[in-house]
Design a protein that fits this description.
This protein is α+β, with helices and mostly antiparallel strands and 487 residues long. The protein is 24% helix and 26% strand. Helix 6 runs antiparallel to helix 7. The longest helix has 28 residues.
């Protein structure tokens, strides 16, 4: 049995009902099953310490049967599966991880260690394989950080039954999982009494995603299902507001110290619930009205169900988790330091440092590069808003932690939502009046960097709030991933 492993992230690329031999090797894949590898990823900045948790045999592999070698070059990590006897490469996939984000934070740089539970899924091999994990350096080059032989016949490989209380909702089925991008929306903070609400919410968000281009033009290549394990309580943890809930998946605000960052560290529970349906992409929907979410490439995405921006957050975070798109905003507070080091050209398709003076989407450009867009005026508006938003969040947290009357809390919450809406309406009008609106160029400010990093258009669903379109660079990136997974 495997005794150590360094890996990460749920990755999906193939389904079949036959055993298919890997390239130039004796190892075959049984596409009627999936190999799930769970492990603990520990350390601080500059460290990669991993220990195996469990290995599983799960249901059918939900992705294409052919071309299991990742051609996208996305993510800060890469998983590789090799034939143990010949060393032939059988499967690869790039991904990002919660640990990968942790090690870019100030506490990690100061030597504080944390442990995160992570998962890699691959087609199920029929013979010995070698698992290899590689990490992308600041120069963009991958280097090996771990390798381990895995025996799929080991009696310690688990085949656990699915819990009896799991609920599956089929919102839209485009076709066979082998030919579709299979999206699963997991529910957290939904009690058994909320099952009907969960089903309605899944259908509502499926419609939001499939009504958005480029997904609207390929609904026959997309499936959306909901999977729910009922929680003991509604909602989720809100540590800065003094709220703690007992939920099935353990979602919490204030992840990595950012008040609006909504994630969970209970990866095992996510995987145990998700296996009730075929999935390529996982989104966790939290039964809550607060604004917030998160998305990590080939790991999972999160969003809340009942905020005025919820549909936007779902699609925005889907851009991260499914397509590896970068955040294009640069002024909102984050916990990262040097997330895109100077001199490093990001792999994400929608941001660039203009190596050689041209963006990676140069063939789409129809204006000057770099592109003038009156950034100073935008920044002044945003600085004012961020200050007011900070005051609003502090007021709400103080009222809730201090046990203020619910009516007073509700008034503060409503005022915060109104502030957000009015600010975004002001920005949308400002964008529309800008002479660069609708142009494809290189707009400075992106990827948490106010200077030196550029995005393709003045606005995009990856930049500011609203269920608006993906920019030209983002749309191309989405289509590239869809093609990789379904062609």
């Amino acid at each position: 049995m495997v005794t150590r492993l360094l890996v990460a992230v749920a990755i999906v690329v193939a389904v079949s009902s036959a055993c298919v031999s890997g390239p130039a090797s004796g190892t075959a894949f049984d596409f009627d099953a999936t190999l799930r590898i769970d492990y603990h990823h520990t350390g601080a900045a500059g460290e990669e310490i991993v220990a195996l948790d469990r290995v599983y045999r799960e249901g059918s592999w939900p992705g294409p049967r052919a071309d299991l070698i990742d051609g996208l070059d996305l993510g800060r990590y890469r998983a590789r599966l090799l034939d143990a006897a010949s060393g032939a490469e059988l499967y690869t996939r790039g991904f990002d991880s919660y640990y990968g984000e942790w090690k870019t934070t100030a506490p990690a740089a100061a030597g504080v260690r944390r442990t995160y539970h992570e998962t890699v899924r691959t087609p199920f091999p029929t013979d010995l394989v070698t698992f290899v994990l590689e990490m992308r350096g600041d120069d963009g080059v991958f280097s090996e950080v771990f390798r381990q032989t895995i025996d799929p016949a080991d009696p310690e490989v688990r085949e656990d039954p699915i819990d009896d209380d799991i609920v599956v909702v089929e919102a839209h089925v485009g076709g066979d999982p082998a030919a579709c991008v299979d999206v699963v929306i997991l529910g957290d903070g939904y009690t058994a009494a909320d099952t009907d609400k969960f089903a309605a919410d899944v259908r509502r968000f499926a419609a939001a995603l499939l009504g958005q281009e480029p997904f609207a033009s390929m609904t026959d290549r997309m499936s959306v299902r909901g999977v729910l394990k009922p929680s003991q309580q509604r909602g989720c943890d809100e540590p800065t507001r003094g709220v703690h809930r007992n939920t099935a998946l353990g979602c919490t605000f204030n992840s990595l110290g950012s008040s609006r960052y909504l994630l969970t560290e209970d990866n095992r529970s996510i995987r145990d619930v998700a296996r009730a349906a075929p999935y390529d992409v996982l989104s966790v929907m939290v039964n809550h009205e607060r604004y917030g979410g998160g998305g990590i490439y080939n790991l999972f995405n999160t969003f809340t169900s009942d905020n005025q921006w919820s549909e936007y957050v779902f699609v925005h975070e889907f851009g991260h988790g499914f397509s590896g798109l970068a955040d294009e905003y640069y002024s909102s507070s984050t916990s990262y330091t040097d997330f895109y080091p100077e001199g490093y050209e990001p792999a994400e398709r929608n941001i660039t440092r203009l190596p050689g003076g041209a963006p990676k989407w140069a063939d789409l450009v129809d204006t000057d590069v770099p592109t003038a867009w009156n950034k100073a005026e935008y920044d002044a508006m945003d600085v004012e808003y961020q200050a007011r938003r900070g005051e609003s969040n502090a007021l709400i947290a103080g009222l809730m932690r201090g046990g203020a009357p619910q009516a007073e809390v509700d008034e503060a919450l409503a005022a915060g939502e109104e502030l957000s809406l009015i600010h975004q309406q002001k920005l949308d009008a400002w964008f529309a009046a800008n002479s660069a609106f609708g142009k494809v160029g290189a707009f400075e400010g992106a990827g948490y960097c106010t200077s030196g990093v550029y995005r393709a258009e003045i606005d995009c669903i990856m930049f500011t709030k609203g269920l608006k379109r993906f920019c030209a660079a983002c749309s191309r990136g989405v289509l590239e991933v869809v093609g990789e997974m379904t062609d």
